[in-house]
Amino acid sequence: MKIFLWILQILLAAMFFFHGWIFLNPPAELVDIMNSQLNPAFRIFLGIAEWLGAIGLLLPGITGIQPQLTAWAATGLAIIVACASVLHTTRGEYSSAITTAILCLMACFVAYMRWKQYAKPEEEAIQDPVGSNP
To answer: What 3-state DSSP class applies to 25?
Structure first.
């Protein structure tokens, strides 16, 4: 399962890095179209958020520093693509809505599995008050 999660994380990171790049540096013929559909500042915010999310999917696990942040990055990306699914549906762009919904499910799966991997066991999370056990 670990290998499958890593493959999924790498694929998601590559997709979000590429999509973030398109939002930050759109081709000249797409700039006017994108700016008419999204506020340029919001488009740039989304591009940066997708880049940071892509980095967050990979870097904590690779470095071993705060690896539980991978679950938070996947959750943030799932929120972004869930909102994108709603946007595409309201525009009648059903193929894009389905694609973003699938990406949302993939990100949710990574978030859940990584959260489950790094969550503390229940008995460690509960601390008995001093002197409660005779």
So the answer is: coil
User: pLDDT-based confidence at 1, cuts 50/70/90?
Assistant: confident
Structure tokens at 60: 């904590």
Q: How many CB atoms lie within 10 A of CB 72?
A: 16
Torsions phi, psi for 107 (to 5 deg): -65, -40
How far apart are the C-alpha atoms of 90 and 76, rounded to whole Å? 22
User: What is the Cα–Cα distance from 47 to 14, expressed in whole angstroms?
Assistant: 13
Q: How far is it, in rounded angstroms, from Cα 130 to Cα 111?
A: 35
CA angle 55, 60, 61 (to 5 degrees): 110
Rounded distance between C-alpha atoms, residue 53 and residue 44, angstroms: 14
The chain-wide mean pLDDT, for the chain, equals 91
DSSP assigned state of 121: P
Q: How far apart are CA 108 and CA 134, in angstroms?
A: 44
